[in-house]
Amino acid sequence: MPDRRAIVNPVKGKKPPDTGPLAIMAATESDLRLLSRLADTPVVEQRKLYMSSLQVHADDRRRFTLAGPLVGAPYAAMIVEALGVWGVESILFVGWCGAISRHVKAGDIVVPDGAMVDEGTSGHYCDPSCRVTLPARHLLQQVRSALQHHGARFHDGAVWTTDAIFRETVEKVKHYQSRGALAVDMEQSAIFTVAEFREMAAAGILVVSDELSDYQWRPGFNTPAFKIARETACRAALSLANAWEEG
After folding, report:
1. By residue range, what is the domain housing residue 192?
2. pLDDT tens digits for 91-132?
3. Which one of 18, 32, 79, 202 is CB 3.0 to 4.6 Å from 91, fit for a cystine?
4. Residue 206: CB atoms within 10 Å
5. Phi-psi region for residue 105, left (φ > 0), alpha (ψ -120 to 50) or beta?
6. How many domains does the chain have?
């Protein structure tokens, strides 16, 4: 087996943040702001994290971190690595995705129970032949329960993670449709892979922002259903974070 020890490794630094055991990673700036606004726990620390922001929320019962925005598998991996070395044990990713199943529509919520690898980052953390990465089962169940608590209907199933948003070709979509993928995103498989490699737990909540299932692009970013689903996903994520320290 080749020597896979890294020369460059994540480091804590001189003044690492006290993150708490759970971090919510938001793919978009708008969802990061929404999470921060909806949180009823005060911000006790805020700093830059590469090109993103990190907020630590805490009171006498709980402590958790919000981090983002982030785009793409390599950058998502960097954020997971930084959070892990600071003591985060579990990652909940809140992102957007494009529907490729005809049963999934803009404004729906997808909870990935696996992510099909079509990005270049995962192969550096697992066997390069790895084709599907998985969430932590216990955290996946907690995500489902949090969404149900908020009355959300959601799709369970696999997603396809790609590096190239502008190369989602008809052939690619048909291929991943045939494998049962519900949607496409740019981060989820790498987050699962890096978290497992670093012995962390990870799960995700993806809000469907657009549709590609009929091989035409149908944006849904401005629909009321999409806006409602984003808020539901953020509220569910925060309720899980709140229960984490309390329970």
Report:
1. 22-246
2. 999 999 999 999 999 999 999 999 999 999 999 999 878 899
3. 202
4. 30
5. beta
6. 1
Instruction: Look at residue 145 and tell me if it is in a domain.
Output: yes
CA proximity to 96, closest of 221, 212, 192, 195:
221
Whether residue 181 lies inside any domain: the answer is yes
What's the CATH code of the domain at 46?
3.40.50.1580
Distance of CA 123 to the CA centre of its chain: 18
Do residues 193 and 121 touch, judged by C-beta distance below 8 A? yes
What's the pTM value of the predicted model, to 2 decimals? 0.96
Res. 3 pLDDT band, cuts 50 70 90: low
Total length of the chain: 247
In the block, residue with structure tokens 């922002």 = 209
User: Is the peptide bond preceding residue 69 cis, with omega within 30 degrees of 0?
Assistant: yes
| Closest residue by Cα to residue 212 from 97, 85, 81, 47 | 97
pLDDT digits (tens, 9 = 90+) for 200-230: 999 999 999 999 999 999 999 999 999 999 9
Residue 154 in any domain: the answer is yes
Q: Which two tokens stand for residue 118?
A: 């079509």
Band (pLDDT 50/70/90 cuts) for residue 246 is very low
